Write the structure tokens for this entry.
Amino acid sequence: MDRLKLATVWLGGCSGCHMSFLDLDEFLLELGQRVDVVYSPLVDAKEYPEGVDVCLIEGAVANTDHLELLERIRRCTRVLVSFGDCAVTGNVTAMRNVLGPKNAELVLQRAYLECAQDNPMLPRAEGIVPALLPKVVPVHEVVPVEHYLPGCPPPADRIRAVLEALLEGRAPALEGPQLKFG
């Protein structure tokens, strides 16, 4: 049997979901015998590959780099899982949306001008900071998603339940305490 090709991605968020993934502890060893991690902030892969079976996507879509990567991920992946509350709802990452239509510019001004201690300037050079989107959105507002894994971050047992179901070829069924946000 072919090993499942697993990817994890970190968009606009805090990396707490990936920290919770690492809390899988001994299950990581079992997982390592059943999957090939082909792309992740946890491995040194620079380009998202073709033929990925499952991708856990952490974080909301906040900039143009996220859009570009997400479109590639959808083209190259069979099953997408919105991984954590930022990916599912926008959560903390989307808090800038309440600032209105000019929120991206306001955030950049606050970070790079008002709070700068030395040499305040907006990063305008190409490739320094990807252009912020006018609104932060959850993953499913950009591409279709097959499964949702809520939590901020989702606890390790919830991540394990989803991964075990997917490894067994079943759709994850989160119910009761497993289906909890925050």
The longest helix spans residues 64-76. The chain has a mean pLDDT of 92. The CA atoms of residues 116 and 146 lie 42 Å apart. The first strand starts at residue 4 and ends at 10.
